[in-house]
Amino acid sequence: MDTEGRSFSALVKEMRRQLALSQEDLARHLGVSYATVNRWENSLSMPSKLAKAQLKAFCEKMIERGKLTLSADMMDFANLGPNRD
After folding, report:
1. Is 81 inside any structural domain?
2. Are 50 and 31 contacting, i.e. CB atoms less than 8 angstroms apart?
3. How does pLDDT run across 5-30, given as a tens digit for each residue?
């Protein structure tokens, strides 16, 4: 997969690690299936625009609450930065 796919995979893995969530737990928070999160982490698929928006909102909420520390560069590189679809 391309660089964006690999960086997205890394973002999802890092986010789950920091929040101590299983793939199943993250899927529940985002309203997607466990298999979807698994495919994202293994660079087998990319999220839809809706799922990407849900993931971005979840990341922002966790960062705001001090539970997650993702760099702006990492979010930008995974195409979740400001003004992105």
Report:
1. no
2. no
3. 678 898 899 999 999 999 999 999 99
